[in-house]
Amino acid sequence: MLGTLFKYDFREVGRTMGPLYAALVALSVVMGALLGVRGNRPPRSAASPKP
């Protein structure tokens, strides 16, 4: 009986938390890509040196 209770409990938690984890992973990938692209560029002040 305890195994059945845990089985249903874990399924319910998986249904609830699965989409949340997927959204967090997607958000971290997008933010990492944006920061990676912006991190490779020099700042605007360094790109155009003053005479």
Q: State the end-to-end CA separation.
A: 80 Å
**Sheet having the most strands:** none
Helix share, percent: over 70%
Rg over CA atoms: 23 Å
Q: Give the ordered list of helices and strands.
A: HH
Q: Count of helices?
A: 2
Stretches with pLDDT under 50, minimum 5 residues: none
- How much of the polypeptide forms β-strand, as a percent range? under 5%
Count every beta strand, where a strand is a DSSP E run of 2 or more residues. 0
Shape: rod-shaped
Written overview of the protein:
The structure is a single chain. 84% of the residues lie in helices and 0% in strands. The protein has 51 residues and is mainly alpha-helical. It has a domain at 2-35. The radius of gyration is 23 Å and the shape is rod-shaped. The N and C termini lie far apart (80 Å). The mean pLDDT is 77.
Short description:
The chain is mostly helical and 51 residues long. The protein contains two helices and no strands.
